[in-house]
Amino acid sequence: MNRRVAFITGAGRGIGREIAKTLALKSMNIVVSDVNIDNAKETVAMLQENGVEAIAVYCDVTKLESVQVAVATALETFERIDILVNNAGWDKIEPFLKSEPRTWKTIIDINLMGQVHTCKEILPLMIQNGYGKVINIASDSGRVGSSGEAVYSAAKGGVIAFTKTLAREMARHKLNINCIAPGPADTPLFQEIGSYNEGIAAALEKAIPFRRLAQPQDIANAVAYFASDEAEYVTGQTLSVNGGLTMM
């Protein structure tokens, strides 16, 4: 029980799964939360094969009540939460004028409100324990915009602003709140949303100076830094991980 405990949303596959595996290598116990509990259990099975203590919890981040139950379940097993990684996300690529209000709501509820919900529940625990690090996953689209992702970009821009404000408010408690803004990444979600626009991956690879999409491990490595002791004096920052697609 001396190990740090990391609560990761959307950890059933893709970037979230890789984050779970990477933090587990840093001697952390892992709470794998996901709206797809079967995917979460698959991630846990992978971790346990390597001797990692991990549990799968159902968590629909769009609903505060679901987050509350997931957090309570995590506390029953590990008694505390030291690291929160707000990774859960979803998008649909389409021109804004062709998008519909129900899609807007889903995007905002998952990508922005989901992070609001988890922070509302977990930050008080961190304050009580005198330790905590929050790593919010935003997107470079929240910094520079992205065609076909108007509402998603707005939600992720909100995540960046939310991170900065929380960092200011939580500094008195010595909690670190930071944000990672990935560029396009080769994930199951990207493959799904990319189906709306054939050729998008090839076009992006040409635009990225490193000539490849990000791999989940690239994002997970950045999360591991923010979660580490080496980042004790870093807060309120947004780190782009994008192969040079945008530079700022």
Would you kindly provide a brief summary of this structure?
The protein is α/β, with parallel strands linked by helices. It is 48% helix and 15% strand.
Task: Quote the beta fraction.
Answer: 15-25%
Largest sheet: 7 strands, parallel
What Rg do the Cα atoms give?
A: 17 Å
SSE order: EHEHEHEHEHHEHHHE
Which descriptor suits the 3D outline? globular
The largest sheet has its strands arranged as 3-2-1-4-5-6-7
Q: How many E strands?
A: 7
List the helices and strands and how they pair.
Blueprint (H helix, E strand, L loop, with lengths): L3 E6 L4 H12 L2 E7 L2 H13 L4 E5 L5 H15 L4 E4 L14 H29 L3 E5 L3 H4 L5 H21 L5 E7 L5 H7 L5 H8 L8 H11 L11 E4 L7
Parallel strand pairs: 1-2, 1-4, 2-3, 4-5, 5-6, 6-7
Helix pairs in contact: 1-2, 1-9, 3-4, 4-6
Which structural traits does this protein have?
globular; 248 residues; single chain; 48% helix; alpha/beta; seven-stranded parallel β-sheet; 9 helices
Description:
The model has no long low-confidence stretch (mean pLDDT 92). The protein is globular and about 45 Å long. Helices cover 48% and strands 15% of the residues. The chain is α/β, with parallel strands linked by helices and 248 residues long. Helix 1 runs parallel beside helix 2 and helix 1 packs across helix 9. Strand 1, helix 1 and strand 2 form a beta-alpha-beta unit.
